[in-house]
Specification:
By secondary structure, the chain is mainly β. 0% of the residues lie in helices and 30% in strands.
Length: 367
C-alpha cells in the first residue's frame, strides 16, 4: 500500500513553519506571511504584492500620525516614528516619561505610568511565533528574552508513519508537538494466549496458541460395582476388581451342641448352649440319684418303708396303737395290743376301733 501525500494540515507548496507531516514523511508547512523586503502587511502605503497567505504586502507610509510633525519643536516633546522609520514630534509640557517599572513598549501586564502619563507594562513572555515549550527550530524570542521555538514533528517513540510489515499492525503511542500521531508496529501475535489443556492440545491458531483441547481420556470410563468394596482401581480411578466377602475370611466355630447362627458366607459365628442347662433340676426328698452334663438333677433316689416293723391288726381288732418309725423318714401306727376275741378288755392301756386297721398308706412322715 502506497503512503498518502495528503497533508493533515498545511501544504507541501508552502514555505512557512512546519505544521504536520504526511504518511510519506514529507513536511507540510503553513503559508508564509512574509512579504518582500521593504513591504509589510502592516504598512498602509500602496500595495506592492501579495504573500502566500493572500495578504497584501504594502510599502511603508512616511506620514506622521495626527498631532505629530516631522519638525523638531524643541523643548519637551513626545516622539513616534512613521512606518518608514522617520521621527515625528509632538510638543508637551516637560516631564519624565521614563517608566519606574517595565516599559512603555512592552505588552505584558500593567506596571504603572510615567510622569507624563504614559502607561508602562511588564514584558510579555508570549511568543509571537512558536512556543517556549517547543523543541523545534528557533522562532525568535519573547519581550522578556525567552527563546521561542517552532513545534517539532519528531516522535519521542515510534514514527508518524502507520505502515507496518506483514504480521504487524500500527498502534498509536502518542503524538508530536505539532499534533501528528506517532505509531509503533506491534506483532499481531503479541498478547495472544490460548486455552490451557490438561490432556494436551488438539489444534492451534495462527499465532501458535492452542484453540482446542484433547478430550479427557477418562470421560465415560466407569468401573465395576462392588458389594464389599473395591480392591483395585484403574488409571482413571475406576474400580477394576472387588474385595471378597469378609464373612468368608472368618473361621467357622466348632460347636458341641450345634450352631446357633451363621454369617452371609455360611460360617458359624455363634454356638448353641448345652441343652442340659435348660432342664429344670429335680428337687428330691431322698437326694439326687442322677445329674446331666450341666449338673441338673434328672433322677431322685427312691426309698421303701420297712413295713415288717408294723404289727398288723388282729382278727379281733386292736386295743392299743402306737406310732413307730418305718424308715424313709416315715412313721406308721402299729397295733401294740391286740383285742381279745372273748370280748374282754386288754391290758396295757389305750384302745382303738376295730376299724383302725393299718395300711401302708397310713404312714406319717417324720420329717
Amino acid at each position: 500500500k502506497k503512503c498518502s501525500t495528503s497533508c493533515p494540515s498545511g501544504s507541501l507548496s508552502y514555505t512557512g513553519s512546519v505544521s504536520s507531516y504526511n504518511e510519506c514523511g514529507d513536511a507540510c508547512r503553513s503559508c508564509n506571511t512574509s512579504c518582500p523586503s521593504g513591504t509589510s502587511t502592516s504598512y498602509s502605503g500602496s500595495t506592492s504584492s501579495y504573500n502566500e497567505c493572500g495578504d497584501a504586502c504594502k510599502t511603508c507610509s512616511d506620514s506622521c500620525p495626527s498631532g505629530y510633525s516631522s519638525s523638531n519643536p524643541g523643548g519637551c516633546y513626545d516622539t513616534t516614528t512613521t512606518e518608514c522609520g522617520s521621527t515625528c514630534y509632538r510638543s508637551k509640557e516637560c516631564c519624565s516619561d521614563s517608566c519606574p517599572a517595565g516599559s512603555k513598549y512592552y505588552s505584558g501586564s500593567y506596571a504603572g505610568s510615567t510622569e507624563c502619563g504614559s502607561s508602562c507594562y511588564y514584558c510579555s513572555n508570549s511568543c509571537s511565533s512558536g512556543s517556549t515549550s517547543y523543541s523545534g527550530s528557533y522562532a525568535g524570542s519573547t519581550e522578556c528574552g525567552s527563546s521561542c521555538y517552532y513545534c517539532s514533528n519528531s516522535c519521542s517513540s515510534g514514527s508518524t508513519s502507520s505502515s507496518c510489515s506483514s504480521g504487524y499492525h500500527a498502534e498509536s503511542v502518542g503524538s508530536t508537538e505539532c499534533g501528528s500521531t506517532c505509531y509503533t508496529c506491534v506483532d499481531d501475535c503479541a498478547g495472544v494466549t490460548g486455552v490451557s489443556c490438561s490432556h494436551g492440545c488438539a489444534s492451534y491458531g495462527s499465532c501458535g496458541e492452542c484453540i482446542e483441547c484433547n478430550p479427557d481420556p477418562c470421560d465415560g470410563v466407569t468401573g465395576i460395582t462392588c458389594e464389599y468394596g473395591c480392591a483395585s482401581t484403574g488409571s482413571c480411578g475406576e474400580c477394576t476388581s472387588c474385595k471378597s466377602n469378609p464373612d468368608c475370611d472368618v473361621t467357622s466355630l466348632s460347636c458341641s451342641y450345634g450352631c446357633a447362627s451363621t454369617n452371609s458366607c455360611g460360617k458359624c459365628t455363634a454356638c448353641k448352649s448345652n441343652p442340659d442347662c435348660d432342664v429344670t433340676s429335680l428337687s428330691c426328698r431322698y437326694g439326687c440319684k442322677t445329674t446331666n452334663s450341666c449338673g441338673k438333677c434328672t433322677e431322685c433316689e427312691s426309698c421303701t418303708p420297712d413295713s415288717s416293723a408294723v404289727t398288723p391288726i388282729g382278727s379281733c381288732g386292736c386295743s392299743r396303737w402306737e406310732e413307730i418309725d418305718i424308715g424313709c423318714g416315715l412313721t406308721a401306727m402299729s397295733c401294740a395290743v391286740q383285742r381279745p376275741c372273748d370280748g374282754g378288755n386288754s391290758t396295757g392301756g389305750g384302745g382303738g376301733s376295730d376299724d383302725n386297721r393299718w395300711d401302708i398308706n397310713d404312714v406319717v412322715p417324720r420329717f
